[in-house]
Design a protein that fits this description.
Elements: H1 2-24, H2 28-48, H3 63-76, H4 80-84
Protein backbone atom coordinates (compact mmCIF):
# COMPACT_ATOMS: atom_id res chain seq x y z
CA UNK A 1 0.00 0.00 0.00
CA UNK A 2 2.88 2.35 0.82
CA UNK A 3 4.38 1.59 -2.58
CA UNK A 4 1.15 2.47 -4.40
CA UNK A 5 0.92 5.76 -2.52
CA UNK A 6 4.54 6.58 -3.39
CA UNK A 7 3.89 5.81 -7.07
CA UNK A 8 0.81 8.05 -7.06
CA UNK A 9 2.79 10.80 -5.36
CA UNK A 10 5.54 10.52 -8.01
CA UNK A 11 2.97 10.59 -10.83
CA UNK A 12 1.31 13.66 -9.32
CA UNK A 13 4.70 15.38 -9.02
CA UNK A 14 5.64 14.49 -12.63
CA UNK A 15 2.30 15.72 -13.91
CA UNK A 16 2.69 18.93 -11.94
CA UNK A 17 6.19 19.50 -13.35
CA UNK A 18 4.96 18.76 -16.87
CA UNK A 19 2.13 21.25 -16.44
CA UNK A 20 4.55 23.87 -15.09
CA UNK A 21 6.87 23.32 -18.05
CA UNK A 22 4.00 23.81 -20.50
CA UNK A 23 3.00 27.00 -18.69
CA UNK A 24 6.50 28.47 -18.90
CA UNK A 25 7.56 27.35 -22.37
CA UNK A 26 5.50 27.75 -25.53
CA UNK A 27 4.84 24.81 -27.81
CA UNK A 28 6.80 24.34 -31.01
CA UNK A 29 3.76 25.54 -32.95
CA UNK A 30 3.46 28.67 -30.80
CA UNK A 31 7.18 29.41 -31.19
CA UNK A 32 6.98 28.87 -34.95
CA UNK A 33 3.96 31.16 -35.18
CA UNK A 34 5.66 33.74 -32.97
CA UNK A 35 8.86 33.57 -35.05
CA UNK A 36 6.86 34.08 -38.23
CA UNK A 37 5.12 37.16 -36.81
CA UNK A 38 8.45 38.57 -35.60
CA UNK A 39 10.07 37.98 -39.01
CA UNK A 40 7.16 39.75 -40.72
CA UNK A 41 7.54 42.74 -38.37
CA UNK A 42 11.32 42.91 -38.90
CA UNK A 43 10.89 42.61 -42.69
CA UNK A 44 8.28 45.40 -42.69
CA UNK A 45 10.57 47.63 -40.61
CA UNK A 46 13.56 47.22 -42.94
CA UNK A 47 11.36 47.71 -46.01
CA UNK A 48 10.27 51.06 -44.55
CA UNK A 49 13.72 51.97 -43.15
CA UNK A 50 16.50 50.54 -45.34
CA UNK A 51 19.87 50.48 -43.64
CA UNK A 52 21.69 53.81 -43.78
CA UNK A 53 19.12 55.69 -45.84
CA UNK A 54 18.37 58.16 -43.05
CA UNK A 55 21.83 59.67 -43.64
CA UNK A 56 21.09 60.63 -47.26
CA UNK A 57 19.33 63.91 -47.93
CA UNK A 58 19.02 63.43 -51.71
CA UNK A 59 15.80 62.18 -53.34
CA UNK A 60 15.44 58.41 -52.74
CA UNK A 61 16.39 56.42 -55.82
CA UNK A 62 18.60 59.15 -57.27
CA UNK A 63 22.27 58.51 -58.03
CA UNK A 64 23.25 61.05 -55.34
CA UNK A 65 21.07 59.25 -52.80
CA UNK A 66 22.99 56.00 -53.30
CA UNK A 67 26.32 57.80 -53.30
CA UNK A 68 25.53 59.36 -49.91
CA UNK A 69 24.32 56.06 -48.45
CA UNK A 70 27.46 54.28 -49.66
CA UNK A 71 29.75 57.07 -48.48
CA UNK A 72 28.27 57.02 -44.99
CA UNK A 73 28.19 53.24 -44.80
CA UNK A 74 31.84 52.69 -45.60
CA UNK A 75 33.03 55.62 -43.54
CA UNK A 76 31.18 54.47 -40.41
CA UNK A 77 31.11 50.73 -41.11
CA UNK A 78 34.57 50.37 -42.61
CA UNK A 79 34.75 46.67 -41.73
CA UNK A 80 31.95 45.61 -44.12
CA UNK A 81 33.98 45.19 -47.36
CA UNK A 82 36.55 42.93 -45.71
CA UNK A 83 33.99 40.97 -43.68
CA UNK A 84 31.80 40.45 -46.75
CA UNK A 85 34.76 39.49 -48.94
CA UNK A 86 33.91 41.98 -51.70
CA UNK A 87 37.44 41.80 -53.12
CA UNK A 88 37.03 38.04 -53.66
CA UNK A 89 33.72 38.34 -55.47
CA UNK A 90 34.97 40.30 -58.48
CA UNK A 91 33.45 39.00 -61.72
CA UNK A 92 31.05 36.69 -59.88
CA UNK A 93 27.32 36.77 -60.57
CA UNK A 94 25.80 37.50 -57.17
CA UNK A 95 22.54 38.98 -55.96
Amino acid sequence: MKEAAAQKSNMDRDQSLSSTFRDWYPSTFEMSQSDSILKDRVRAFWQQNPCGTKFADAPPGSRRFYELVEEHRYKKEWHIPEAAGFAHSKDLNVL
